[in-house]
Amino acid sequence: MINAKTKNTDLIKAEAKRLGFMSCGISKAGFLEEEAPRLENWLNKNMNGQMQYMENHFDKRLNPTLLVEDSKSVISLLLNYYPSETQQDPDAPKLSKYAYGNDYHHIIKHKLKSLLFFIQDEIGEVSGRAFVDSAPVLDKAWAAKSGLGWIGKHSNLITQQVGSFYFIAELIIDLDLEYDAATTDHCGTCTACIDACPTEAITEPYVVDGSKCISYLTIELKENLPTDFKGKMDDWMFGCDVCQDVCPWNRFSKSHSEPLFNPHPELLSMTKKDWEEITEDTFKKVFQKSAVKRTKFAGLTRNINFLKK
């Protein structure tokens, strides 16, 4: 006889798969003991740069029971975004692969809400909240805790079967479930990501100085880019994939099957010249539903101009 906890866990994982999630892992909601000193140390060294929000809600970041009252389980989900094609002009300014299609926040939030409604319909009165990279939740720590992968030397989550080109999201709910065990680290002696980082942002294995990371510089930093980074941006105008591109585990990445992640028809064929002469109208058309809107037209052109020799 299958007990209710196992039955509910199986139901949730099957529905997550049906909704298109690559994988689903579950861990017990509680204080992240190992993460606390790491996060404190990282903040003390100002590795969050101007991301002041990283300093807010320190306790909530480490304890989901403060975010969702009486929460029992953190359901971690991965959604693949690896594209089948990339930008065609090798000299064009580069865009991180995750930003090719529609903004992932909306797409994933919709799937998470569907999963929560399913849980409430099938199991009964369950309260919870959906999180997609927009609240004080340590996504990667929870995904690792629930066995979906390990946190690599570049601080991204890596999975043996599929690499690291996926989004991480959570549902935190007040329902007891069967919990998964963490997996082991398979980075070994490899230092590919550390050696390849154009700005030397990976200061030591498993530690990234956010204030030196190209993703931070091109997206989060609102003022002028520091001149120290001139010539070190490796032609990235929005985000950066270098540490993932060189990771041996990403040999196993497979193209996503989410139509909403497909790029705007013009995006991949834009040449270096097209980008350097981009108008606000083109920006609005190509990035109408994209996460790139976050930098705004002024931010993207600032980045493109900074790349000019």
From TrEMBL:
Signal sequence, start to end: none
Keywords: 4Fe-4S, Cobalamin, Cobalt, Cytoplasm, Iron, Iron-sulfur, Metal-binding, Oxidoreductase, Queuosine biosynthesis, tRNA processing
Reactions it catalyzes: epoxyqueuosine(34) in tRNA + AH2 = queuosine(34) in tRNA + A + H2O
Gene3D superfamilies membership: 3.30.70.20
Free-text remark on how the cofactor is bound: Binds 2 [4Fe-4S] clusters per monomer.
Origin: domain of life: Bacteria
Catalytic-site annotation from UniProt: 133
Amino-acid positions noted as binding tRNA in the UniProt annotation, renumbered to this chain: 222
Localisation per UniProt entry: Cytoplasm
Known cofactor(s): cob(II)alamin; [4Fe-4S] cluster
InterPro entries associated with the record: 4Fe4S_Fe-S-bd, 4Fe4S_Fe_S_CS, QueG, QueG_DUF1730
Residues at which [4Fe-4S] cluster 2 binds: 197, 213, 240, 243
UniProt-listed Enzyme Commission number(s): 1.17.99.6
Record-level Gene Ontology MF annotations: epoxyqueuosine reductase activity
Primary location class: cytoplasm
Entry binding sites for cob(II)alamin: 61, 133, 157, 168, 215, 240-241
Pfam families, per the entry: Fer4_16, QueG_DUF1730
Annotated residues for binding of [4Fe-4S] cluster 1: 187, 190, 193, 247
Alphabetical list of SUPFAM superfamilies matching this protein: alpha-helical ferredoxin
UniProt KW Iron-sulfur keyword: yes
HAMAP family for this protein: QueG
Biological function: Catalyzes the conversion of epoxyqueuosine (oQ) to queuosine (Q), which is a hypermodified base found in the wobble positions of tRNA(Asp), tRNA(Asn), tRNA(His) and tRNA(Tyr).
Family of the protein in this entry: Belongs to the QueG family.
The protein's assembly and partners: Monomer.
Protein name: Epoxyqueuosine reductase
